[in-house]
Amino acid sequence: MAESAFFPNRSGWKKAVSVLLENEPAFEKVIQANRGQQLTVQRARSVYEYLLRAIVYQQITGSAAATIHGNFLKLFPGYRPNPDRLLRMSETKLRSAGLSRPKLKAIRDLATFQKQRLLPGFAKLGRMDDEEIIEKLTAVHGVGVWTVQMLLIFQLARPDVLPANDLGVRKGATIILNRRQDLTIPQLEKRARRWAPYRSIASWYCWRATEL
């Protein structure tokens, strides 16, 4: 991975926090608790390898996913999952890494996209808007909106992404707003209009709120 970079930068982060506090003073406690910290970007080698890892990590614990992902990478020279080699590899060998059949299907579809040059690189994605990117990447089997939203936030540093389906974001927003019951997706989306154009930053603080 490339060296970590501040998101978007220190002065930009301060501006975003200032606007967020002005629009939603309830964020003050979690912002104070995380003073000096901010969301960082660790750019993956490629969109292909980022999505591969994301598919492996879906719906299982982090430690189990890390083991499976490591076993999967060991199947390839230099730990680089070349799409041609992947598509030629037998199901038995790929499954030996611990991949489920649905994930194997998704990974093969992703490799096909990469081989046929249908998967944009980071430079091209950088010239597309958020909705275009979501539409483009969710065409890959097994890649959902949430996965692409994580790419938008943590790889492309897009400032105004709201992963409303993310349980952690909803739980954190519930804590921040001191609600008795967890916010529903429509409730979160409505409330988050106040957080624009920095809903990515607000979401990051919602995740942090669940750790307090």
Keywords summarizing the entry:
212 residues, mainly alpha, Endonuclease III, domain 1, 13 helices, elongated, disordered N terminus
Descriptive notes:
This protein has a two-stranded antiparallel sheet with strand order 1-2. It is elongated. It folds into two domains: 88 residues, Endonuclease Iii, domain 2, CATH 1.10.1670; 108 residues, Hypothetical protein, domain 2 (Endonuclease III, domain 1), CATH 1.10.340.30. The chain is built from 13 helices and two strands. It is mostly helical and 212 residues long. 56% of the residues lie in helices and 2% in strands. The N terminus is likely disordered. Helix 3 runs antiparallel to helix 7, helix 9 packs across helix 10 and helix 11 packs across helix 13. The two termini are 29 Å apart.
Summary?
The chain is mainly alpha-helical and 212 residues long. Helices cover 56% and strands 2% of the residues.
Would you identify the CATH H-level superfamily of the largest domain? Answer: Hypothetical protein, domain 2
Using only C-alpha atoms, the radius of gyration works out to 19 Å
Identify the overall geometry: elongated
- Number of helical elements: 13
User: What class, by secondary structure content?
Assistant: mainly alpha
